[in-house]
Amino acid sequence: SNSKWRNAAGGSASSFTAAKNTATSGDLxxxxxxxxxxxxxxxxxxxxxxxxxxxxxxxxxxxxxxxETDFNGFAITVTNGTFSHAFSYPTYxxxxxxxxAWERVL
Length: 106
Fold this sequence. Notes:
The chain has strands spanning 15-16, 20-21, 28-31, 40-41, 49-54, 61-65, 76-79, 84-87, 92-98, 101-104. By secondary structure, it is mainly β.
């Protein structure tokens, strides 16, 4: 086509959906490119938990579902060393590596 927009295949993203994490305590590091991502939490928490997003793959994403979690008065904090988002209620969050930083998009 000449001077017209033409549909083309886009770039690929590194996205992870994995088995449920049923642990009630302990910290997790989710590393872009790892084969074992734990992103869905179903448990009654017995302590605060920290999820650290690691890796720098362009368009990498982590989808974190806390919908079935009984927080039991505790919190799950998602961090990358720069930001820190604490959740103490059932919710869903998505983080994408855009440009040169992790960003929460939901």
